[in-house]
UniProtKB/TrEMBL annotation:
The keyword Nucleotide-binding does not apply. Belongs to the acetyltransferase family. PROSITE patterns: GNAT (PS51186). Keywords: Acyltransferase, Transferase. PANTHER family: DIAMINE N-ACETYLTRANSFERASE, GH14572P-RELATED. The gene is LOC106748030. GO terms for molecular function: N-acetyltransferase activity. Residues 4-153 form the N-acetyltransferase domain. Pfam families: Acetyltransf_1 (PF00583). This is Diamine acetyltransferase 2.
Amino acid sequence: MAEVIVRKAKREDCKAIRDLILELAEYEKMPDQMEIDYKTLERDGFDGQPLFFCNVATIDEKIIGYTLFYYIYSPWVGKAMCLEDIYVTPEFRGKHIGDKLLKSVVKEAVENDCHQLDFIVLNWNPAQEFYKRRGACDLTEKEKWHRYRFSIDDLRKLASDA
């Protein structure tokens, strides 16, 4: 196998990243929930103050995986980071590429004085074991935290009552 290079994503990577996001949505059995296009990724990640950061894994300059993350703030510990996605195309899984992508985010978190790295994993996804082998703690089991969400329709309804 050729050398795997993990690097910061560039604006011109957004089409390939968007395709991989769709692959991940299909893997997670939720392709109908994906609404983002590459232009939105370009705007939100590369114009003005970025809303997210992204690293890509490449072989011979072809993008075969990505990780998407952003900074958050915890009132308990201060600066923190949220890992939104790690994805590696099926043909390159089991070759430690996910590990390289995770370590690229962890390195950034440590270098930028983050006190924790938060992420979620679907309850059926075998990636849970990937994270647990590296020391991650399942907060749903340990601390009984549950993650909730307001959809855009819920937001609009609540905002109309404000």
